[in-house]
Design brief:
The chain is mainly β. The chain folds into eight domains: 44 residues; 49 residues, Wheat Germ Agglutinin (Isolectin 2), domain 1; 56 residues, no CATH class; 43 residues, no CATH class; 48 residues, 2-Layer Sandwich (Wheat Germ Agglutinin (Isolectin 2), domain 1), CATH 3.30.60; 63 residues; 116 residues, no CATH class; 55 residues, Wheat Germ Agglutinin (Isolectin 2), domain 1 (2-Layer Sandwich). The protein has nine helices and 56 strands. Strand 41 and strand 42 form a beta hairpin. InterPro entries: C1-like_sf, DC1, DC1-like_CT, Vacuole_Formation_Reg, Znf_PHD. Keywords: Metal-binding, Repeat, Zinc, Zinc-finger.
Amino acid sequence: MEIVEVPSIHEHPLLPVTRFSREHRECNVCGFFGYIYGGYCCNELECESMFHKECVESLSEIKHTTHPDHPLKLVLNGESSLCSRCEFPFENGYTCSICDFKLDFRCAKGPAPLLFLEKSNLHEHQLEFFVGWLSWKGNKECKECGDRGFHGFRWYGCHQCGTLFHGECAEFFPEAKHTSHPQHTLKQLTFKEAPDYADKKCLLCEEEFDQQHPKIHHCDVCNFSICRTCMKSAPPVRVESPTTHEHQLHLVPRRIDFTCNACGTLGDRSPYFCLQCNFMIHRQCIDLPRVININRHNHRISYTRRLGHGEWKCKICRKKVDGFYRAYTCLKCPSFVVHSLCATRKDVWDMIEREGILEEEEIAPYEMIDANTIKHFSHDHNLQINNDGHGRIQPENIVCEACVFHILSEPFYSCNQCSFILHKKCANHPRKKRHMRNNTPFLLLADSLDASCDLCKQHFTGFRYQSGPYVALDVRCAAILDTLEHGSHQHPLYYYSTFDWKPCSRCRKNGAFLFRCDECDYILDGKCALLPKKVMRNRYDDHLLSLSFGDKNVSGDYWCEACETKVNPKEWFYTCNDCGTILHISCVVGDFSYIMPGSHITTWRVDDVVSNTSICRRVCYMCNSRCKLPSVLKLSDAEVDVYLCSFKCHASLFR
């Protein structure tokens, strides 16, 4: 894997690639926003910068038709300047060392825009080129497409009548040629002007045409339609990518049904094709990475040209993988197979090519001192294993520092010098792991700061897994895999994230991170799916309470021992299997159930979470009822003791 050091352009080494961006990207040198077809990408975690090939390999000195008298020298990451041609501010571009002439990359790379457009079919008056519209006195909408754009757009404006046109609308009006359709010109149309028979997607990139696309470009002779982005930046008609195929690949810009040789899925338009080998490939499958890490598996996976005979199922989408096409496999786990497109999704892959990079050694969470003693990274003292209580429930105040759950009947480690206690299973949580909630690794932190879990949406203290600055998981949710066997449903539930929020089948609240059944419409959000199956005994019962998913055969109502109101037996509730005690879920698990009593919690202010397990329960200041839950919020700056039972009451108090 060849790495290029270009310190003047980017602080990290760059990897030359021939792959196409799957979405609109911005070149970090010239600022162009659209599809990037090959070039260079940053191979550092969470950077994801992309660069045009010509921008990285820019000549240090050029001659340009707009300034024929002197050569122009390349300046990168310099002070902000105004382009002498378009008057747009830039930091990367070319300057003349003799006079004050400057060009940004866009004006230097492409043909310079005409400063004036004479009377034409576009407009009856002369139009003048300029950038931005803050100083423009007339209408700030493009007359051709009706879109306002933004301040950095290039425009043509008429000073006589105040009419405005995007530079691109003027450039492509009324029709223009395109490299993917050289036989005819493409007419510029609005979405509403497009004929009914025209395709509803761009023939090249498959983007759907809708009201958000101000213009499409159409050939009515061939029924050929493409979007504005592809009109501005045409995909190459020929591609050489040795990592993809040994021969040159040619674009076939037309509707054609095919099976992609790289991913094994069907396509219906514009593949790249090798005539010698009858090889066809999606544009997004060109130059797929060879070795990668994904968030659904602990080991690296490798790009494999052929799986061979067998029944293979993708571990992400759970659909069949055809063994005669390329896919990703794990060398350590032969049954682990993933579709090429599933493995390289942005929410799955960390966007780093791992070929040629040594695999990191796993750091153990603790050091074994002897058979019964460990030195855990989170604590200054040695911890002793305690198996004496195995099978016997521990007192209510024995709480694990990592998960903030009571020690039930599990073995645990304890400190002889202080009150620090860890479940044995919590002591074994890895220092670094991958999880489906984010594409970058999670690091285990033991600072016990309060946070909000990104999966179950509960506030918590204790240990947390952190990925980047914004995504945190409590250790309980971090241990969950993407496949969940749940007692409330007969089929497995699978994790998925969506921008189209769906309601949870239990609480009916909409969510984006859900567990869904492939067989039916059953969905659980993270909070409901990950409710604890067993909870510590409390003042209402001396035994463990178990989560029940309802009894459909019962008529009438149950009675909650905590709030003394009815419980619908067909809904979820907690019950004691020994005594028959029934409690609402909301009377057992509350907003502060995952927070260690005595901790500070930060919202827009700092308050304290305190225990509420005494016989005399605290009274909530807002709802004036005795708090049923074992933890409540206490205001830190009140002159008298003020207790609140939930975040809702806390918000109401300061509304």
